[in-house]
Design a protein that fits this description.
Length: 197
Amino acid sequence: MPGLGPSKCLSNRYIRKMLSFADAGEQDVFYDVGCGAGQLCVIAAKEFHVKRAIGIDYHKARVRMARKNVREAGVGDRVSIRPGYFEDKRLSDATIVYYGLTEGDDTVDVFEEKLQEGCKLVTLSQPFVGIIPTRVDYPFYLSVIPFKRAKTIEEWVRAVLFRAGGYDELKEELRADPDYYTDLRTLPRLMKKRFQG
Ligand SMILES: C[S@@+](CC[C@H](N)C(=O)[O-])C[C@H]1O[C@@H](n2cnc3c(N)ncnc32)[C@H](O)[C@@H]1O
């Protein structure tokens, strides 16, 4: 299982930007996997009027905090906070998923197995390794199930950096990139898995 993930929480403005970018609305079932204090779910329900919002977090104190925030915001009828690892949960009713955590070895496989076709998945600061996003409004990358795989490293690098380049240029840029928080030791492993089978 991945660790706690970055201690980075989205500001309300970024949350609104992300939900607008994903076209969240009354027809949607929104999931925040790794929901922390639950603020994304609160805004999704209160301001974007999603049908349901579900936050998942394995950290017990954060689950308690998120439940309190949901109650206080008066959206408890449409928001639930579920304790545990998202990798162990059913996600099949999701229409929008926000994933702000570091990509792990099996993250793409987990989502491809659990999410329904057409589900939108928004990642922060980068798309999953080897996956071509459908839309980008930096720092948000939106990919749709079934994921579109890059045929070459260069195709993927262009989708990440918005410029031509290969793997060396990517590493060079990411090393100095304050927005990039994925452990750079994981990247070669994921690149190998996605591009060399
Ligand atoms: C930094 S918070 C992000 C909160 C919120 N999504 C945001 O963007 O503002 C990340 C949370 O993800 C939780 N987390 C990390 N890995 C997880 C996993 N595999 N399953 C469930 N929760 C996880 C952590 O406990 C932490 O509370």
